[in-house]
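Thread: Modeling a multi-component assembly for a lab meeting

Hi all, long-time lurker, first post. My supervisor asked me to bring a structural picture of a complex we are working on to next week's group meeting, and I have zero experience with this. I have the sequence lines for every component (320 residues in total). Could someone generate the structure of the whole assembly? Inputs are pasted exactly as I received them:
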Amino acid sequence: MRARVTVYPRPRILDPQGKAIREALARAGFAQVREVRAGKSFDLDLTAADEAEARSLLEEMSEKLLANPLVEDYEISLE
Amino acid sequence: MKCGVVVSPGSNCDHDVYHVLKHVLGQETRFLWHRDSSLGGCDLVVVPGGFSYGDYLRAGALAALSPAMAAVRRHAEAGGLVLGICNGFQILLEAGLLPGAMLRNRTLRFECRQLFLRVERDDLPFTSRYRAGQVLRMPIAHAEGNYVAEDEELDRLEAAGEVVFRYVGPDGEVDEEWNVNGSARAIAAVCNRAGNVLGMMPHPERCAEEILGNIDGLDLFASILDHVGQRSQKAGLEVAQ
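Re: Modeling a multi-component assembly
Sure thing. I ran the full set together rather than chain by chain. Output:
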């Protein structure tokens, strides 16, 4: 089963990378961009009996390793 | 005192810590490979600075799951002394041995410079040779040292006395200009509730010898030595009785 986990800094958390990218976009002529949040995404191929099991495994691995829940949120999507 | 220094691929302050413990303080010291699942009876385990696992994913995140860190966790739970410096601090946070997390420095730069620290506690195994309020000079060298935790957690840390060092100006006052990484409440070091696990971003091993022009970090290691010496003396007396 294929899945994608995306990880982003939590809304209240300062995202200096996103801020730097927004400033660079403005210098590149894209002043329309008001905010950028810089995150990461992971494509995984995993074995699971069904979607529910896959989702539960992905949540567990996101909490334990892929994201740091103190400062990051994550989203799981299954193909 | 028996000391161990955990080495992960990408550690780069391991030899500095080894040098201070072995050659400056004359203690029995060994390297512990990240795949080792035993600490070989060490009194003190140091998780040194560097870029463990290339800082992949998040600084310290992958090292936190290594076999050596599982052993460090058992050592800490049994009351053993654990010192995490710089990336070692990040690893202890990721391993959940200390509360909080690190973000990119607010300057967006790797900051490598001398700063001033105020000693917040002098009753720990790591700080007994200092006195509370004393101002130390110590170097930092990191890109992710911007300490964060929820407000309630920060309040709890302060109330429980788990903030051990704070970034201050030369006169010992908290001054945001000197808090270059932007840490919450200018926190440079925290300990766990029991006080046997310390994580700090500044590098005491880089200022522990006269030839380096600064020995403010030496007393941190000497404090640990005092503590372990007293503890084993006490244990010896108990055995003799």
